[in-house]
Automatic annotation (TrEMBL), chains A, B:
Domain named CSC1/OSCA1-like N-terminal transmembrane: residues: 5-164
Lineage summary: Eukaryota, Viridiplantae, Streptophyta, Embryophyta, Tracheophyta
Source organism of this protein record: Nicotiana sylvestris (Wood tobacco)
Name of the protein in question: CSC1-like protein RXW8
Family: Belongs to the CSC1 (TC 1.A.17) family.
Membrane topology field: Multi-pass membrane protein
Bilayer-spanning residue ranges: 6-27, 97-115, 143-164, 351-370, 403-423, 443-462, 474-492, 541-573, 594-615, 621-640
């Protein structure tokens, strides 16, 4: 690939991005799309739909960029929770380290690469891109020391920045613990595998056990019911209610905002008796029917946070497979149907899912390499001679080589996150946040293996090197620099395009249009709000980080494109966090250890590949000089694991004891206890589960208000 | 190797064993060796040395065998603790499963092997041993199904027996918890990494922290002092005292038992003020000197067991690297010098030791293969032509091939357990039992890798197959059956010999003789008592178990020899536990998970090798029929891990709460609290640390009493 071609591609992509971003800035001002682009705010306030035609609605404006830029971390934290802050910090960290790398490598390494070998020079735009990579450095050149120096510098800076980030995020996590004072989950222990007895109901067994062993701190408990029939009843009732509610609205309410607001209130009001009934059924109705539906799990409430923490730790009874206790997730975070799964089956589920996801990750390389095979049509024709007739037509051939591979790959790639999310569900996570986090790790493994290694090993190697090199080390050293161009275009196309896509929300937009023009249903709130898809976005950014690290010293031209991507990502994701996604639940920043570990992995991979490349360039001293760097990086990782990681797994006892004391001194404890017992409701009606708005607090809030004063909007705390 | 040769070897070994066992039965009756063969009892009672010459002292007798056979598990448990019971159960389990395997394989598989191929028959004694292995079965033979059936049968029986053992040992462990009522370690939490402050001593910081957060349950604490100068002073004083004590004894006491008993009393009396002084120094002397010696660790005593358990779990403070809490080991089990190691250095020590021991395990194969190379002298001569001259002399050649390899190997093998124990010490284990357990795992890995795989991969493969097979699977399938003969003789020589060696205690015997005839020192109690060397004996038995499993279906002739070994081991080790070794500390049965996991590993290895062998014999159906068995075995292991393993890591809260209640109802709590503060003494005098006898309780107990009524001897509970 020539440099000019790359720059052309960059130009095209930039133009597409600018167009789409402008389009977004127009679309977001259209009242009819407000639920697509302002989901988070709709969840808080039901905005008045203003249909008045104004000219400035159709002028692209950069106001959203300014707002996304100006918003402080505190506001992000208030809107999106600690997870959102961690996500933004991840982008900021990547931006920082890659800007350092870009400066060092483009001013030190790039010229050395360019002038590395005596060769016929073209005009710079006509040079092939290989001239700018380490491939162009002569064997045994003394200039390889510069690459080695750059490697050391980048590694040290990355470790330093990682340490600072880990430290500040740990501090934020500690603050997150102390700030969530009214969080009922700190008082609650989820008990699973309650032993079955013939004489007593599960509820009786729980009472007996906890009054016996935790007499001083046990408050009350709430049995978890098997979903299934009870759930189905409630869901059906909810649907009925919704159908009844929709028809009068269409008839009477029209599009007047005031009525609409009232309708919303009425709707949620009409749901309330239903909920109360379920509640009543749970608490009073200890008769025959519900007892049969009891599952072997319960939520046990304690008098203070520390007692709950203590009860959640360690082994409770003589049989490790009964009375399994964990700190309960937050009410909105509970994954009720998984809690009912018998505990004794969980281990076998986990193994099955582990095997299944490993199989998916490993065998996905088959379609990837098949699509890669399409690029090398001539080889394919040799292998399957019957294809020759079809492929000799020019249009067919162009389609096959130009479009099909990427289309097939993208379709496959979009299928994976939902599958992984399904796997994580079947694994038996007790909370939604945990499920998403587990899916995030699976998707990350998938991306790294299939996109990075898959392309390196199948694409270029099959083509050029398989006959010459059998050694894995040499293979990496040869294949990695030569695939730099591919990943550069990957950053340009997949990265930038995915950001535009994220901003435009095509799925939401299509749903909206479908509802409005096909179903002729003007109330589009049924589309619901989304939570931030950490399980696809975290792996994506980390994958680009992997590209950045690996290619920083080998082919530094990738870095400017990456920096542009990261700065766009910063703006886009902040905007999305503020406006689009709703934060119903969060993990409390536990995505950071994933980010940290992946970054360390990327760095070690960068170092190993650099070592292999130096070896291939016959500079054994520089090559062996990298070994201490690898060891130091691994030791640094181990130190961080010791120093910070425990905070992301356990809650320090000290903090909870201090919180308990404060509440007792303030006399707030009684109030918390009262709220506690009604905090967890297992059976919500289906419409509420789909993300229906919380009953509005400000009915007359206008769309303009939303845009101008984002900070003043009441923050939605999960109560 | 011919069958006759094997039988001859077995005969020779049997004769040697019989001679040594008889010699032992004579030697143990000699009063002068009483401290070699009755260490455990000497530790309890100081026996009267009876020098009267009697004829029956020199007649071999099987009385010890009878006694070892008759002793019940309860007595073993009382003398050797739960660990000894686990050790005996391990031998019993191995005996059971291999007797089943021996019956099945020798009556079903062995005839099939023998009549497998049409070949020229010799008289049975003249047949080569290969005729009895699976090598003799024809390719594609339908009789391989019998091997497959045997495999299934052995695996199922092994899983069933393993399950029963795990279950009964878990129950014993629970009983062990409840039985050790007066154990001070349940009330004690070891706190490390106490944060340093300029204003306060560590002692003050501990008081402030625990009175703040554990006000209701905190009792007192005891700072751990840096060993070094304090330790040195006490040791020196102890040595001085001992020298003073030895001279008068030799002059005045002679060999009269009463005086000796008194001497013992005097000696320990003369130590007492010293200890009291140290105690006093610790508790009262909070002045300048000792404060400087305070290390950042302390033992914190709590009012009840449950409070200590709670304080030992989870994260205490905001910084995971400070206030690290663990349940304390028992007083005799404390490894004081490791507790003083700064906690922040521990992780790096652990990594260094991990790397070092992996390197040792991996590179030890070099001397092993070198000694194996000696066996194949002709090859060696080709590689190093200068050796030819030396090696052509016949005596030299015989020495080199016959003796050197095994001598070198044995010397190397005896060096490894002490090195591993040293590694475990440097790793920073806080207790002696933990250190031994960790060394046990290291030695086990070492044995399995170097003895089993080392011999298979280096010995036979280099010789025969390296040119023909590169595939690991085929390599295993070819190499494993062909090394059966080697391991058969290994069981005969190394196994049986090691048992005789264990029984004779050559090291103790030599020390004893050296003291008496070279140093002319009649008081040989300074040789001290030993604790059971679990870290060498557990791996040894497990290694033989590995041989048994792997060769049971391939070459079943190994099984009878193994059964003889196991039954001898049963008698010998029970005798040693009862008479020789002292139980100062124990892990409470946590060796069983190691045994269980290794057995599962051996079984899976057996199945994989059998699968490979079936594949090689062109019986793909039988080969693929093994796959479900492997999966089922692994699932069984996972189930056991879920069901039982947590009990071997944590103490159930339920048990401790119940114990606390009982003690409170009985009013024993106060008494326990009083004992608690004096339970842990960091600085003992050196003579006591070397395993000097506990002050005698029965002075007039005679040696005969010891032999006849072993059950009546007061059990030495670590107080």
């Amino acid at each position: 690939m020539k440099l000019a071609a790359l720059l052309t591609s960059a130009g095209v992509n930039t133009a597409v991005c600018v167009v789409l971003f402008s389009l977004y800035s127009v679309l977001r001002k259209q009242p009819s799309f407000v639920n697509v682009y302002f989901g988070a705010k709709i969840a808080q306030v039901r905005a008045r739909q203003q249909d008045a035609f104004r000219f400035d609605r159709f002028v692209p404006s950069p106001s959203w960029i300014l707002k996304a830029w100006e918003t402080s971390d505190e506001e992000i934290s208030a809107t999106g929770g600690l997870d959102a802050v961690v996500f933004v910090r991840m982008i900021v960290f990547s931006f920082r380290i890659f800007s350092i790398a870009a400066i060092v490598c483009n001013f030190l390494v790039l010229p050395l690469n360019y002038f590395g070998k005596e060769m016929q020079r073209h005009q710079i735009p006509a040079e092939t891109l290989e001239v700018f990579t380490i491939v162009n450095v002569e064997e045994g050149s003394r200039w390889l020391w510069a690459h080695c120096f750059a490697l050391y510098l980048i590694s040290c800076c990355a470790c330093f920045l990682l340490y600072l980030e880990y430290k500040s995020i740990s501090r934020m996590r500690l603050a997150y613990f102390t700030s969530s004072v009214s969080n009922p989950s700190y008082f609650t222990v989820l008990v699973r595998a309650i032993p079955w007895s013939r004489q007593e109901s599960y509820s009786g067994t729980v009472t007996r056990f906890f009054t016996n062993f935790y007499a001083s701190s046990y408050l009350s408990h709430q049995i978890v019911y098997r979903s299934g029939s009870v759930q189905k009843l409630v869901t059906d009732a909810g649907k009925m209610c919704k159908m009844l509610k929709l028809t009068p609205r269409e008839l009477h309410c029209g599009s007047s905002s005031m009525r609409c607001g009232l309708c919303g209130t009425t709707a949620s009001f009409s749901m309330l008796p239903m909920e109360a009934e379920t509640d009543k059924g749970r608490s009073d109705f200890d008769g025959s029917d519900l007892r049969k539906k009891e599952s072997a799990a319960a939520l046990v409430f304690f008098r203070n946070r520390y007692a709950a923490l203590v009860a959640s730790q360690g082994l409770q009874s003589r049989n490790p497979m009964s009375w399994v206790t964990d700190l309960s997730p937050e009410p909105d975070d509970m994954y009720w149907s998984n809690i009912c799964v018998p505990y004794r089956l969980l281990w076998i589920r986990k193994i099955a899912i582990l095997v299944a996801s490993m199989a998916l990750v490993a065998f996905f390389i088959v379609p990837v390499s098949l699509t890669q095979g399409l690029v090398h049509l001539d080889k394919l024709q040799k292998t399957f001679p019957f294809l020759r007739g079809i492929l000799q037509r020019k249009a067919m051939s162009q389609l096959a080589t130009g479009y099909l591979p990427s289309v097939v790959l993208i379709i496959f790639m979009y299928m994976v996150p939902p599958i992984m999310l399904l796997f994580s569900t079947m694994e038996g996570s007790i909370s939604r946040s945990d499920r998403k986090r587990s899916a995030c790790i699976k998707v990350l493994c998938f991306f790294i293996w299939n996109v990075f290694f898959g392309n390196i090993l199948s694409g270029s190697v099959i083509e050029r090197f398989s006959k010459f090199f059998k050694d894995v080390k040499n293979l990496l050293a040869m294949a990695v620099p030569s695939t730099a161009t591919f990943f550069m275009t990957y950053v340009l196309t997949s990265g930038w395009a995915s950001l535009s896509c994220e901003l435009m929300q095509p799925f939401g937009l299509l749903c909206n249009l479908f509802y409005r023009f096909v179903l002729r249903n003007k109330d589009v709130s049924t589309y619901g709000t989304l939570t931030f898809p950490y399980h696809t976005e975290v792996p994506r950014i980390l994958l680009f980080g992997l590209f950045g690290f690996v290619y920083s010293t080998l082919s530094p031209l990738i870095l400017p494109f990456l920096l542009v991507y990261l700065s766009l990502a910063y703006l886009v994701y902040r905007n999305q966090i503020l406006n689009v996604y709703v934060t119903k639940y969060q993990t409390g920043g536990t995505y950071w250890p994933i980010v940290h570990n992946t970054t360390i992995f990327s760095m070690v991979l960068m170092q190993i590949i650099a070592m292999a490349v130096f070896g291939l360039k016959k500079s054994t001293v520089a090559s062996s000089f990298v070994i201490p760097l690898i060891i130091l990086t691994l030791l640094f990782n181990e130190y961080c694991r010791q120093r910070f990681q425990p905070l992301f797994k356990h809650i320090p006892a000290q903090i909870l004891i201090e919180m308990d004391r404060q509440d007792e001194q303030n006399g707030k404890m009684k109030e918390i206890h009262q709220k506690l017992t009604s905090a967890y409701t297992q059976f919500k009606s289906s419409s509420l589960m789909l993300g229906d708005p919380v009953p509005p607090s400000h009915n007359n809030c206008r769309l303009e208000d939303l845009e101008i004063n984002p900070g003043k909007i009441p923050v939605h705390h999960p109560s």
